[in-house]
Recover the amino acids of this structure.
């Protein structure tokens, strides 16, 4: 049993060593995006039209990085500034489910086909779910 | 996990990017570097947990057990585990990728991995903040549709990725 655990620990350390350069690269990119893409930049891009705001929301949600709560705060502010509810919902969904910055890591770990299918589905579902969520909120609220 | 050099290439590209931006906007780039260090500090405990789980998984759980819980024969139990595992998992998604790939290599269904990753859009610790900004009705419908979306995506991905 001890030998089994030792072998497992060695294998795990090997995996860590393998992903370390990519992980550090992604963390470096996240730092750059945090500083160079600001919430003020986002505010100027929403215009209150459902389809336009959904496209902008998914686009910027996909490239934005940070803790999920940031998307709620930015989303709340965008609503106050007149962005459509569809767009803000799409922004929140894309923020937490898509990650353009971490795509290279996803491709390198899972392989091209899996990462492509997963990201395309997440992209599509940011629009679909934004529509369903907003529609339900409007009907039932 | 297959060995490739894309990580080193990517690290080189990012280092070069920092160098160029450091010359153009030194203050902003130093702030970006500090922001990156903050992210690194935040993910270290989660990373340790993930790699500890990986070691335990490799040592004590065999492929037969994985197949029964999240493999081809897992059925509804597998979907339940993937969706709840995704909702309960903490930290950035990319920290979980090595563990998820490890499970795939041991026979976990691709559709369940996709469902797990999407279900992570529900962040239990941040629900009170979501309620404050958008209300209960939005939070409930958001949670419901994300679970449905994760499940449907898992089914579609399973069909598309069938070997």
């Amino acid at each position: 049993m001890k030998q089994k655990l030792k072998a497992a620990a060695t294998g795990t350390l090997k995996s860590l060593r393998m992903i370390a350069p990519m992980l550090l690269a992604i963390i470096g990119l996240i730092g750059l995006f945090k500083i160079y893409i600001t919430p003020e930049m986002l505010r100027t891009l929403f215009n209150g039209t459902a389809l336009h705001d959904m496209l902008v929301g998914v686009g910027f949600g996909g490239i934005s990085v940070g803790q999920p709560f940031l998307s709620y705060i930015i989303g709340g502010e965008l609503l106050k500034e007149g962005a459509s509810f569809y767009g803000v919902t799409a922004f929140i969904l894309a923020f937490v489910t898509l990650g353009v910055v971490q795509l290279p890591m996803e491709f390198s770990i899972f392989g091209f086909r899996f990462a492509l299918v997963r990201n395309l589905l997440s992209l599509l579902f940011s629009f679909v779910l934004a529509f369903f969520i907003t529609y339900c909120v409007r009907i039932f609220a | 996990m297959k060995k490739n050099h894309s990580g080193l290439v990517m690290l080189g590209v990012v280092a070069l990017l920092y160098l160029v931006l450091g010359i153009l906007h030194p203050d902003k780039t130093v702030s970006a570097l500090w922001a990156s260090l903050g992210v690194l500090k935040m993910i270290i405990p989660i990373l340790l947990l993930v790699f500890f789980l990986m070691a335990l998984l490799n040592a004590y759980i065999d492929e037969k057990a994985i197949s029964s819980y999240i493999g081809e024969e897992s059925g509804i139990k597998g979907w339940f585990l993937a969706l709840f595992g995704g909702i309960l998992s903490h930290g950035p998604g990319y920290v979980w990728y090595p563990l998820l790939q490890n499970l795939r290599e041991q026979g976990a269904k691709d559709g369940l991995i996709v469902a797990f990753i999407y279900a992570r859009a529900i962040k239990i610790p941040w629900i009170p903040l979501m309620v404050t900004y958008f209300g209960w009705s939005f939070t409930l419908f958001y949670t419901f549709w994300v679970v449905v979306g994760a499940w449907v995506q898992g089914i579609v991905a399973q069909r598309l990725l069938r070997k």
Notes: Residues 61-163 of chain B form one domain.
